Amino acid sequence: MQGQANTPWDTRLNSSARALKGSAIRELLKITEQPGVISFAGGLPAPACFPAEEIALATERVLAHEATRVLQYGPTEGFPPLREFLAALMATRGIEAPTERILISSGSQQALDMIAKVMIDPGDVVLVEDPTYVGALQAFRPYQPRFVALPMDEHGLQVDTLEAMLADLAAGGIAPKFLYTVPTFQNPTGVTLTRARRAALLELAERYDLPIVEDDPYGELRYSGEPLPPLAALDIARHGQPRHVLYLSTFSKLLAPSLRVGWMVGPDELLHKLALVKQGMDLHTGSLVQAIAFESCRDGLLERHTPRIRAVYHERRDAMLAALAREMPADIRWTTPEGGMFLWLTVPDELNVRALLERAIARQVAFVPGDAFFANGGGANSLRLNFSHPSAERIAEGVARLAAAIER
Amino acid sequence: MQGQANTPWDTRLNSSARALKGSAIRELLKITEQPGVISFAGGLPAPACFPAEEIALATERVLAHEATRVLQYGPTEGFPPLREFLAALMATRGIEAPTERILISSGSQQALDMIAKVMIDPGDVVLVEDPTYVGALQAFRPYQPRFVALPMDEHGLQVDTLEAMLADLAAGGIAPKFLYTVPTFQNPTGVTLTRARRAALLELAERYDLPIVEDDPYGELRYSGEPLPPLAALDIARHGQPRHVLYLSTFSKLLAPSLRVGWMVGPDELLHKLALVKQGMDLHTGSLVQAIAFESCRDGLLERHTPRIRAVYHERRDAMLAALAREMPADIRWTTPEGGMFLWLTVPDELNVRALLERAIARQVAFVPGDAFFANGGGANSLRLNFSHPSAERIAEGVARLAAAIER
Q1: Which CATH superfamily is domain A22-43+303-406 in?
Q2: CA B290, B185, B394 angle in degrees (round to 5)?
Q3: What's the predicted TM-score (pTM) here?
Q4: Minimum CA–CA partner of B108 in chain A
Q5: How sure is the predictor about A4, in pLDDT bands with cuts at 50, 70 and 90?
Q6: In A, residues 347-366, which contact B (CB 8 Å cutoff)?
Q7: pLDDT tens, position by position, B95-144
Q8: First CA to last CA across chain B, in angstroms?
Q9: Do the chains contact at A277 and B106, CB–CB below 8 Å?
Q10: What's B339's DSSP letter?
C-alpha cells in the first residue's frame, strides 16, 4: 500500500481531517498484542468476565421467537423493550426516568459524537478534566472546540477551580457549551469525585446554567468505599426531571463491548435533537444486539453477574496496588481507585515517559503514556495502567518488569 | 413530555442543530405502521427474505467457538475475517481490492457520515442527484455543504449536464468536494445509469479530478436487463487501484438491516483518514455482528440466498408495474426499474402530492412524497413507491387504493 500517488480525495480533505494524525503510540502499542507482552495499556474487560453462555442462550431465544422483528430496521430511539428495561435499571442507580427519556447509542462513544454534533460550533468552549478520556477528545475534536482543561486531584475534578474558571469565562461573555466529566472511577486516573464535590458541582451548574455530560461506564464496578449518587440523580432529585445533566452509560463493561450498546438519559428536547442527528449517523443501533442485550438481562443477569465481575477486578486492583507498593521506588506515586479499570502513576519529572515506554516494551510490559489524556498538553510525567485485563499473576510480574524498566 | 421548560442545553445548541427539524412526513408515516395500512412508504426488505435460520446457526457457531474474540473490543478497520471475505466478494463485482482496502462501517449510513466528516467544510459544494437518497442529505447536512443538484432521467444522472456544471464551477474557481451517486437501481427513482453514461462519468472524473461516492446497496438485486459494472470497477480497471471512486455497499439488503454492517472500498490514504474519524465515532462496528455476517456467508450463503430474494422482489416489481398499468389514469407516469426496491411516480402538476398523501392514508395506503428527496426543493409532483416489503397481492390492492385517491 506504500507510495500510492495522491488522489483527488487527499487534496480535498476538510480542515479537521487534514489536522488528523495517526497516533504513534497506537502504532507502538500494536506490538504489545503479542502473547509474551503483559499489557497494562488497553482498556479491555477480562474475557473471563463475559457472560458468554447467557449471551448465546439469549441470542438463540431472540432469533427463535422474534427473528423478523430483530433482523429488520428499527426505530432510531432504540429497541422498545430495551429502553423500558433501562428505565427500570436507571431507577436502581437513583436516576428516575420514563422510557421516553432513554435514548440508545452505538456504545457510549457514539453518544459523545452525537453530543458534539448538536452542541459544538468551531471555537466553542468545552470544559474537560485534565487528564480526561482520550476517546472524548477524539469524538469532540472534529467539531473544533476550544478545550478548557480543569485540574483534578485524588478527590476528582477541583470544583473550586471550575468555579473560578466559570466566573472568568462569564466575565469574558463566554458560556461554555458543556462540561464533560467521568466522575466515578475516572478513565484515566481511577479517581472518584467526592460526595461534597458532587453537591458543589450541581450548585455551580445551577448558578452558571452549565450543561454537564456525565459519562458513567464504570459506576457499577466498585470494589471498596461507599456508593455515591450519579450527578444525574442529584439533578433529577432537584428538578423532578433531567435539567443540567446528560447521563451516559453502556453495556460494554457489564456484558460485552462488542455489542456496542450504550444509552443516554437527559432532557427531552436535547434527546429529540440527538435522535434526529443519530438518524443521519447510522439510522439506528442494530436491533439484534439491542434485543440480545435485553434478552440477556431481563431475568436479572446483571444482578447475578456484576458481583462476579467486581470480584475478579477487585482482586486484580489489589494485586496491582500490592505489586506497586512492593516494587516501585519511593519517588513514584499512584492513585488508589475504589473501582473501575485504571490506575494512574506519577513519576519524577526527570523520567522521560516516552523513553520509559520503549524500555518497558523491551522488557515485555506496556502502558499508555499519560500525555495522551491531556487536552492541551502536559502530563509528561504520568502514565495509565489497566488492571482489568491481565490476571493477578501477570499483574505482579508486569509491575516488576515496569519497576525494572524505571530503575535508572 | 410536553411543556418541559427550556434547559441550558436548548439555548446552547449549535447552528446545525438549531436548523434541524423533525419531519412532518415522518410523523405522518408513523400512522402507517398500523396493520390495515398498505405501506409503499418505507424502504424495508421483506422479512421473508431474511435468512433467519442461517443467521441463527451462524451465531450459535460463532458464540460456541469464538466467544472471547467476538465479544471483546475489536479493530476500527473491521473484523479481519470479514474484511478478507469482502475482498473476495468485491472481486465478483469486478472490484479488485486487497483486504487492506476494505473498511467496515456501521451500515452504509455511517459511511456517509464518515465521508462528510473528512471532506466537508461549511459552504463546500457537494454534487448530488436530483432526487437523491434522503439519508445522504441527512448525513451531509450537519456539515453544512452547499448542494448542487443534478437532473436525472430514465437513464440516470444526466452526465452532459454534470459536465456543463463542472465547467461552470471550475470557471468560478470551485472544485466540488465530491459527487454522491446511487448509479444502480437508485433510491428513490429506481433508474440505472447506462453503460455509456458510466464511461462518460469516469472520463469527467478524470478530466476534472472529481471524487465520486458510489453508493451501491441494491446492485445485486437485478430482475431484468444486463448487469453493468460498478463505477469502482471502471476506476480500478483504469488505474490499477481506486482513485476517483469510493465504493459503498452493505449487508442490509442481502442478509438483514439490523446487523448494521456496511463496507467501503477506496484509495488508501482516504480509508486511513476515514478509519481515524470512525474511531472517534464509535470505536468500531460491533465484532459480534461482523462475525455473524462472516460466519453466515463464508460457505456461500449469498450465492444461494440472493437468487431467492431476487425472485421475490422480481414478482413484486412486476405486480406493481402491472397494477399501475391497470389502475392509473393516463396522465400519471412511472419508472420501470430493472432492480432494487423503488419505483418513482410523476403526477400532473395540479395534483397536490401532500394532500394526496392525506387522502391515501384515509384509504389505508401510504407512500413518500417526492419532494423529500430533493436537496434544494422541487419534486412536488412526484412520489416514491416501495415494492420490496408488501406482498404481490397487497401491492395490487394498494395501487388500486392509490389510484382511487388520485381520482379527481
Answers
A1: Aspartate Aminotransferase, domain 1 (3.90.1150.10)
A2: 90
A3: 0.96
A4: A282
A5: low
A6: none
A7: 999 999 999 999 999 999 999 999 999 999 999 999 999 999 999 999 99
A8: 41
A9: no
A10: B
